[in-house]
Amino acid sequence: MLGGGTFTTMNKVLPGSYINVISTGNATAALSDRGYVAVPMELDYSPDGVFEVTAADFQKNSVKFFGYEYTSENMKNIREIFCRANTVYFYNICEGGKKATNTYATAKYPGEAGNQYKIKIEESVDDENRFIVSTIFNSTVVDVQEIEKITSASTENNGLVDNDYVNFKKNVVPTVTAGSSLSGGTKGTSSGTTIQNALDSLESYSFNILICTLTQTTDKKLFVNYVKRLRDENGIKFQVVIHDPENEIPADYEGCIRVPNKVTDGSEAAYELVYWTGGAEAACRVNGSLTNVEYDGEYTVGTNYTQTELSNFIQSGFLAFHRVGSEIRVLDDINSLVTVTDGKSEDFKRNQTIRVTDQISNDIAVLFNTRYLGISPNDNMGRASLKNDIVKIHEGLRDLRAIENFTSSDITVEAGDKKGSVIVTDTITTIEAMRQLYMTVYVS
């Protein structure tokens, strides 16, 4: 991993990009895509380690990835994420589960979902010397293959080929069966070790939002410390969404988004709103805001709050949901930062500002690390080229109306104290979506 993060003095050892974002007083100069989510969570059935699923993948292949159909109640949380998200990096924090099995095959992954498979073997109507072998999920045939009949079998000679759903036992002699069910599949359990393994594995991925699906205070604090370390020490810019109905995690940090609302038709902990919030925050345009955006998920959201309580949510750094007529909407698109300093103004409380600054930090880091680090000479021509590319990124943000009043003179690129170092100064003015209307009507 290349060096990165913030800096106080220019004394870094690792080559890389070190970027400070403070208040005033891809491998090209283009804006990177948004809509990427990372979520370590308990899954009944899934691949091991980090695995990537797009919105299209989920709709078409949910059985392959998760062992359940797209419309299943078991997929409700994941549907919530994909209400808005484009791509999700999942990590199943359960371990120790067992794979379902029968005479002919074993489910691809551990979990109870594997018990829904069965293997059907029948003679071919076209050739009496061949079998048709079908893999069936519930009542749906998901794979069909044709093999020659054999009378004895040794390792890997019965002709069956593993598919996306089961691994076949190669040393078994297939015989006609109307449908042999797999059984014995069990879900694993999560632990502190599996949670930490998930976070460690996700460090090498790029995403906009990390969703904390855990309900224990110690686990939530682990996620907050994780995002602080990666944002501030490694220069990896993303935010974490956590459920904090009891105000147990006063993070006071722009990288943490706290949701206070409970759902009334979810688990006992009622934390499930983090799924929709995480997907929506990740997919929100760099020039957009979730303020007043309607919740279009499937849960029933608790919104029995007074105006005073809603005001307190904003002042305390909560992204809350409230009822507007028959609709549930985001009250204000803010993060958990409440303490204003010279380095972090009121603007840093707003996720719209963080999206812009994170976009700039991430895109310039990618630009420098792929096109300049170890490649471009640190002379006037090299620094002029770097400035031009940085200006292009900002012009893209200006054209999107994410920043305003930008000119190329707002960027300076100078030689650092060491021969290989470059100093970039970047001044921006972010644009914020309209939030409040103050109007006076004079009647004559």
Would you kindly provide a brief summary of this structure?
The protein is of the alpha/beta class and 444 residues long.
Question: What does this 3D model show about the protein?
Answer:
There is one protein chain. With 444 residues, this protein is an alpha/beta fold. It folds into three domains: 3-30 and 340-426, no CATH class; 36-93 and 189-330, Dna Ligase, domain 1, CATH 3.30.1490; 105-181, Immunoglobulin-like. The protein has helices at residues 55-66, 76-81, 192-202, 217-233, 273-283, 307-315, 351-371, 380-399, and strands at residues 3-5, 16-18, 36-41, 50-54, 87-92, 105-107, 117-123, 130-137, 140-148, 166-168, 177-181, 209-211, 239-243, 256-259, 321-324, 327-330, 411-415, 422-426. The strands form six sheets. Strands 4-5-3-12-13-14 form a six-stranded mixed β-sheet, sandwiched between helices. Strand 7 (117-123) and strand 8 (130-137) form a beta hairpin. The chain is globular. It starts with a strand and ends in an 18-residue tail after the last strand.
